[in-house]
Amino acid sequence: MTTRTSWADLAANSAAENVGVGSSSASNGAVGSTSGAGRPVYVPPHLRNRPPSAEPPAPTSSGLTSSNDRPGYGGSRWTAPRNDYNNRSGHGGSGGRLGGWGGRSGGWSRGKDREVNPFGNDDDAEEAFSEQESTGINFDAYEDIPVETTGDNVPPPVNTFAEIDLGEVVNLNIRRCKYVKPTPVQRHAIPISLAGRDLMACAQTGSGKTAAFCFPIISGIMRGQVPQRPLRGARIVYPLALILSPTRELSMQIHEEARKFSYQTGVKVVVAYGGAPINQQLRELERGVDILVATPGRLVDLLERARVSLQMIRYLALDEADRMLDMGFEPQIRKIVEQMDMPPPGVRQTMLFSATFPREIQRLASDFLANYIFLAVGRVGSSTDLIVQRVELVHESDKRSHLMDLLHAQRTNGVQGKQALTLVFVETKKGADSLEHWLCMNGFPATAIHGDRTQQEREQALRSFKSGATPILVATDVAARGLDIPHVAHVVNFDLPNDIDDYVHRIGRTGRAGKTGLATAFFNDNNASLARSLADLMQEANQEVPAWLTRYAARSFGGRNRRPGGGRFGGRDFRRESSFNRGGSDYYGGGNSAGGYGVGYGAGIASAWD
Ligand SMILES: Nc1ncnc2c1ncn2[C@@H]1O[C@H](COP(=O)(O)OP(=O)(O)OP(=O)(O)O)[C@@H](O)[C@H]1O
């Protein structure tokens, strides 16, 4: 993730760059169009390539898309040939290098609304192609991963991006990202979503879930019928897709990723999150939005101010879906999804993604889905084998000196010399500040991120960590999920979390995209309730479980963290477990198991959960 376009940076640069709405009068097309009053008029992706004289579609008052308006193989949208959106790109037009919208007259590349290249200045796609073989993901690491799908008529997986047929412009962006072939979750999830199906997908941390939900959304918007947004007040915006995530930094990261994937497609991605000035986000929204990436709190604010309508939403994605539906967020999510004007399940398409999906959350989540497919890549809630997990018995009062020893050892071994980064998780915000201070006092450049810091401080901390200026980041759980920070070599659980799923997400900040990583946990009596699930998880991931941890595990009584089956992680599609419980057959039918572990997780597991 880069925070280049964050409000903190923009605030710093505000004197140099006035991004005010009124200043876009130089633009005359797409998101940069202006009304007679000088206010930008949103032009949907499908019209942005039309000559300036083309009339926009007559607005309708209904605005709602119907269920058969959803994308699908062989669906009506294909009657507009897929080359359509490539041809619209203005090959040979002024400035249009490789398709997309860049070369159109009146396109949103003009003037103030020029689409910033999210790949930085390195826009040399050919260079990216030549590098891709050496920098791509280590796919061997995923070769044997078991995959299971349940649901009706599951579309078959693909092996290559070419098979998925996302269109030339998106394919070029995929190559710019140096993605050579789809990861397992992408191989399965993208065809399912492109077929218009709802999806609950569980795949290990760092395995490419972001692209798995972004590609179908972008492709769907590009192929879809021209959206006819209601004229119900000029200042309300009508996104076509909504991606919700639990933290501001994760929303920023998804926004950056989605901008890369949609570069020069004409699909406009906007982010809205708390802690940053809402007016700037409103201005950005008024310039046009197809995909809105947001945190729930800020979105509720925008909805209550009647500045965003969800009436046109065709795609809803919840990243870290289990977190979004746990007690903290569920009321807000229900408000957004069920109590505003969003089309219901079956009309919109819904995608839920996470690395962990407790059964009770699956049950809650099923309220938001229609005839969905459940996809598990690897075992639900498992950690990846790419992470070497160590757990050490450390008395509370010895933790700091123990951490110091670890960091010294890293230095001696030259890891930090190569700018490897260490992420240290603690329980409390106060604890984070205090440990950061102590590390700095002891000659270890550290910074901290937690919920009591201002958004500017949070973004600055992340930037400083990523750049290696402060190669140690002390964090609370605000940094536990989703953040994709290259070169995090070591995750230290200075304080272990209470929930094993939080542990899975925390250690998942290393060992990403086929790379290996190290996770060290400090364990003591305070963590006894986690012993069994931790031992099970480690065993499952072929890690060495210390004898003392096994003894702790034998003494513990399970509770929330107890995993079913004594180390056999189950808890996949809760619908199947229910059917197993009743002794019936798989009433959803269509279950596929690729990889050979799809049997034997039935009745025994269901009764052991919780
Ligand atoms: N097909 C691909 N080839 C190579 N790299 C990829 C591919 N897909 C994704 N990646 C890279 O893998 C990394 C991890 O992806 P991503 O952040 O989407 O993981 P995730 O599954 O969402 O993880 P988490 O559960 O922690 O949120 C990113 O750096 C992403 O750019």
UniProtKB/TrEMBL annotation:
Listed Low complexity bias regions: 14-38
| Helicase ATP-binding domain mapped to chain residues | 190-375
Is this entry keyworded RNA-binding?
yes
Spell out the molecular function terms from Gene Ontology: ATP binding; hydrolase activity; RNA binding; RNA helicase activity
**Its EC number(s):** 3.6.4.13
Occurrences of domain Helicase C-terminal (ranges): 413-553
Q: Which InterPro entries match?
A: DEAD/DEAH_box_helicase_dom (IPR011545), Ded1/Dbp1_DEADc (IPR044763), Helicase_ATP-bd (IPR014001), Helicase_C-like (IPR001650), P-loop_NTPase (IPR027417), RNA_helicase_DEAD_Q_motif (IPR014014)
Keyword list, A-Z: ATP-binding, Helicase, Hydrolase, Nucleotide-binding, RNA-binding
Motif annotated as Q motif, chain positions = 159-187
Instruction: Report which superkingdom the organism of origin falls in.
Output: Eukaryota
| SUPFAM superfamilies registered for this protein in UniProt | P-loop containing nucleoside triphosphate hydrolases
The UniProt entry's sequence similarity note says: Belongs to the DEAD box helicase family. DDX3/DED1 subfamily.
* Protein's name according to its UniProt entry: RNA helicase
What is the species of this protein?
Answer: Durio zibethinus
Gene designation:
LOC111302785
